[in-house]
């Protein structure tokens, strides 16, 4: 026979609401801001590179006053390839703070010769195919023999580009290459090839 007794009522306790605290609110915002700044610093110093192209030296690929994003991770396990557009430390700047954006033309150990506006690599009979040029290049330059571990850079707007042809230090060492340019984001968004 069942025993009658008092059954315990199960009650759900309502969670207590904590009173508002300006101190906790300010600490919470500071934590969010510090985390955002830390993430931005890590991204900007180890993952991406942001650069401004102030002149028309890379037109029609990158227009004057454009801003570009590059990947700092592109050359960790590989080397720059001919045709890559890269951000690098300008070799004639003793401070190392000036960045340039140009296209890789000569690879380590190659000889680059420019004859009547056409680029020839290692004495080839066929000039380099350069569909990215703004207009046909004028003049003859070189030959330039690229040292091991270095690269020879030219702008895409060759008739209006202060590039390796005119620098005192004509070659860019691999460790001075910061990033491979992936896209421009200002004034318009576009992939860089």
Automatic annotation (TrEMBL):
Enzymatic reactions: Cleavage of hydrophobic, N-terminal signal or leader sequences from secreted and periplasmic proteins
Membrane topology listed for this record: Single-pass type II membrane protein
This protein's name: Signal peptidase I
A biological process from GO: signal peptide processing
Family according to the record: Belongs to the peptidase S26 family.
GO cellular component entries: plasma membrane
EC number annotated for this UniProt entry: 3.4.21.89
Catalytic center residues: 57, 102
Presence of the UniProt keyword Transmembrane helix in the record: yes
PANTHER family assigned: CHLOROPLAST PROCESSING PEPTIDASE, SIGNAL PEPTIDASE I
Compartments where found: Cell membrane; Membrane
Entry-linked InterPro entries: LexA/Signal_pep-like_sf, Pept_S26A_signal_pept_1, Pept_S26A_signal_pept_1_Lys-AS, Peptidase_S26
Any one GO MF annotation of this record: signal peptidase activity
Domain called Peptidase S26: residue spans: 27-186
CDD domains reported in the protein's UniProt record: S26_SPase_I (cd06530)
Record key words, sorted: Hydrolase, Membrane, Protease, Transmembrane, Transmembrane helix
Transmembrane segments: 26-48
Species this chain originates from: Clostridium porci
Superkingdom assignment: Bacteria
């Amino acid at each position: 026979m069942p025993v009658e007794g008092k059954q315990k009522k199960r009650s759900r306790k309502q969670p207590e609401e904590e009173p508002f605290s300006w101190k906790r609110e300010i600490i919470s915002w500071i934590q969010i801001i510090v985390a955002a700044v830390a993430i931005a610093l890590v991204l900007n110093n180890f993952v991406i590179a942001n650069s401004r192209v102030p002149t028309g030296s890379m037109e029609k690929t990158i227009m004057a006053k454009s801003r570009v994003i590059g990947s700092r991770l592109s050359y960790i396990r590989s080397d720059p390839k001919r045709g890559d557009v890269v951000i690098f430390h300008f070799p004639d700047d003793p401070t190392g703070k000036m960045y340039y954006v140009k296209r890789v033309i000569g690879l380590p150990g190659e000889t680059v010769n420019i004859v009547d506006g056409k680029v020839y690599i290692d004495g080839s009979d066929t000039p380099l195919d350069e569909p990215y040029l703004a207009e046909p290049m004028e003049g003859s330059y070189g030959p330039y023999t690229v040292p091991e571990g270095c690269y020879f850079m030219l702008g895409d707007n060759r008739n209006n580009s202060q590039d390796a042809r005119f620098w005192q230090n004509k070659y860019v060492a691999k460790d001075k290459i910061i990033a491979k340019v992936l896209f421009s984001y200002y004034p318009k968004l576009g992939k860089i090839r």
